[in-house]
Amino acid sequence: MATVDNVRNELIDKIMSIKNRAFLEALDQLISSSLPQSESIELTQEQETMLEMSEQDLKEGRLISQEAMDKRNLEWLNAM
């Protein structure tokens, strides 16, 4: 069974090959009309706490670059 990402990527590939402007505009209208207009997402208390902790980390400068995180992860994986 194809994952959502696989299906999405296959659709993108097909759309990229379409040259008919009217078809693309119709497809755009179809997709736009099927999207929810405003969807609220309810967060759990744990998710809200994690977001608050992240904001505090940003304020206090507790950051790490992606490169440093990749290096740390690689070292951890190699230690196993």
How would you characterize the overall build of this protein?
- The protein contains 4 helices and no strands.
- It is an all-alpha fold.
- The mean pLDDT is 90.
SSE order and pairing:
Layout: H1 4-17, H2 21-34, H3 45-59, H4 66-79
Please outline the major beta sheet. none
Shape: extended
Helix fraction bin: over 70%
Helix segment tally:
4
Q: What kind of assembly state do the chains in view correspond to? A: single chain
Strand content: under 5%
Task: Give the termini distance in whole angstroms.
Answer: 32 Å
Rg (CA only): 21 Å
Low-confidence stretches: none
Provide a brief overview of the structure.
With 80 residues, this protein is mainly α. The protein has 4 helices and no strands.
Which features characterize this protein?
80 residues; mainly alpha
